[in-house]
Amino acid sequence: MFSNEQLQDLIRGRIVGNRFPYVANNEQEIEAHIQRLFYRINRIPNLVCEAEWNHFGSGYASFVEFFCYRKEDAKVIEEKYGHQEIKTEGVIIDVSRLAPVAIMGEDNRCKTIRIETNEVVKGGYCSLPGHSKLLALSEKNHPIEYQLQQAIKEFGYERLPAEQMNQPLPFKAKIPTIYREPKEYLIMDAIFYWED
User: Fold this and answer.
1) Alpha helix (H) ranges present in 52-183?
2) Residue 137 — very low, low, confident or very high, per pLDDT cuts 50/70/90?
3) 52-106: per-residue pLDDT in tens?
4) Cα(80)–Cα(99) distance, rounded to whole angstroms?
5) How many angstroms separate the CA atoms of 154 and 114, rounded?
6) In angstroms, what CA-CA distances link 53 with 60, 71, 183?
7) How far apart are CA 162 and CA 151, in angstroms?
8) How far are the Cα atoms of 11, 33, 62, 77 from residue 194, in angstroms, in the given order?
9) How far is CA 186 from CA 76, 110, 115, 173, in A?
10) Which residues pair with 70 in a beta bridge?
11) Distance between the two ends of the chain, CA-based, in angstroms?
């Protein structure tokens, strides 16, 4: 795990780690490494992986979020007036931009698309740091969990356990995050945060 000093460095946006590419302290190399992991995951048969590269559209996210699902787990719930509502059950992987670590959990995502153009007109989803109870995976997702775990390990990432991530932060801090208030900070918040 991380020392208090390392957690404070992560909160300040400093890169921590003694593995490639983090040891080089080069943001572009780290981003390229995460992209190679993304392409590796997309080569898993019958698995779709979508990534949020652009800091959720604003601000700064200390992580890249992948949403991975089997094609059969994307189901059309309703179709009317030229729109389809699609519900997708899948696995989220948050990969840190600041340390060679990741967390994994589940989400159910909904989106409505315009059939004629395939344009997404609305949608909804959760992010793991905001919902720490989502860090567990159901038995249904164990087969893809194993494949995803192999991929992140192959790229030098350590999957952090929910028990450690959900511990209270052991010191006072000001974390640039929208997920929790200061007196509620968890260790997870020092590593995986989004400043809008």
Assistant:
1) 142-154, 162-165
2) confident
3) 887 666 678 899 999 999 888 877 777 788 888 878 888 999 999 999 999 998 8
4) 45
5) 38
6) 10, 22, 29
7) 19
8) 11, 20, 6, 31
9) 36, 28, 42, 11
10) 47
11) 27
pLDDT > 90 in the chain, percent = 52
**What sections of the chain are H helices per DSSP?**
4-11, 27-42, 142-154, 162-165, 187-191
Q: What is the mean pLDDT of the chain?
A: 86
Q: Please give the pLDDT value at position 121.
A: 67
Residues linked to residue 96 through DSSP beta bridges, in sequence order: 63
- Which has the closest alpha carbon to 90: 111, 75, 113, 73? 73
pTM of the model: 0.86
Q: Give me the residue label for tokens 């946006």.
A: 13
